[in-house]
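A quick aside before the break. I want you to see a complete sequence-to-structure record at least once, exactly as it would be stored in a machine-readable document. Don't worry about memorizing anything.
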Amino acid sequence: MSSIAFIGLGNMGGGMAANLVKAGHDVRAFDLNAEALDHAKDNGCKTFMAARDAVEGAHAVVSMLPNGAIVKAVYTADVIGHAPRTAILLDCSTIDVATAREVETLAQDAGYGMVDAPVSGGIAAANAGTLTFMVGGTDEAFARAEPILSAMGKAVIHAGGAGAGQAAKICNNMLLGIHMIGTCEAFTMAEKLGLDPQTFYDISSVSSGQNWSMTSYCPVPGVGPQSPADNGYQGGFAAGLMLKDLRLAMEAASTAGATTPLGQHAKDLYEAFAAQHGGMDFSGIITTLQD
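That is the input. The structure line, written in C-alpha cells, reads:
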C-alpha cells in the first residue's frame, strides 16, 4: 500500500481520490473547500488543512487543479521541497504546455520524478475509474506513475516527454469540440429537412459521418446511448471546461505555428455559448443551432 497525497478534490479529483482508496492506497487529501474535504473523508481519505501537511511522507503526490497558475503555485510553494525527494509527482490537471514543462523542470532540478497526466472521460469516468490518461515525462517517471494512474483509469498512454500529455489532451479536445459542433449541425439540419432524428442516427452511425460525439454522446435527447442530453444537458463535461481546453489549444497553436481554422471557429462558438451557459454540458450547444 502506498501513501498518496491528493491535492484538488473537485468534480474530477474527488472521484479519482476515492478510487485510489478503493485500490488500497492510503490517500492524504487536501482541498480549500471544506465540503470537498468532508466528502473525501466519507470516501476513506485522510484529510488535511494544508497541502504541505498532506504531502509529508507521501510516496506519491497527485494533483487535479483548475489552471496552470495554480499548479505552479502549489508545486513551488507546497510540494517541491516538502514532499520526500523519493516521491513521484503526478499532475492530472489540464494546463498549458509551457507551464507543465516549467513545473516538471523545477521538480526534476530538485530531484523529483514528475509527469503531466491530463485526463479524458469526464466526471462519470472519474467516479467509475475509467479515465484515459495521456502522460508526458521520462520513461522512468512514467513507469513509476503508471500503476497509480491505472487505479483511476482504463487506459494509461505515454505520449512522450515533459508536456506531451498536455499536448495530446488539447489536440484531442480541440477535435472533440469540432466534432460535437458538426454533429449538432448535422442533426439540426436533418430535422429541418424532415428526417426523424432516430432515423438519421441509424443511418449516420453506421456511415462515414460516424463519430464519438454521435454514437457515444449524442446531443439529441432520446437518441443513442444515455447522455447528458437526456438530463437537460446537465452533468458530463461543462461547456466552460470545453472552452478552457479550446483556448489552451489556440494558445498552443499560435506558439507552434499550427494552422487551426476550425479549432478557432469552435473556440469562438463555445465562447459565445459558455458566456450564457458555462455550466451546461458542452453538447448543449445544439440548442443555439435549433434556435
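Two observations worth writing down. The chain has 13 helices and nine strands. The longest strand covers residues 153-160. We'll return to this after the break.
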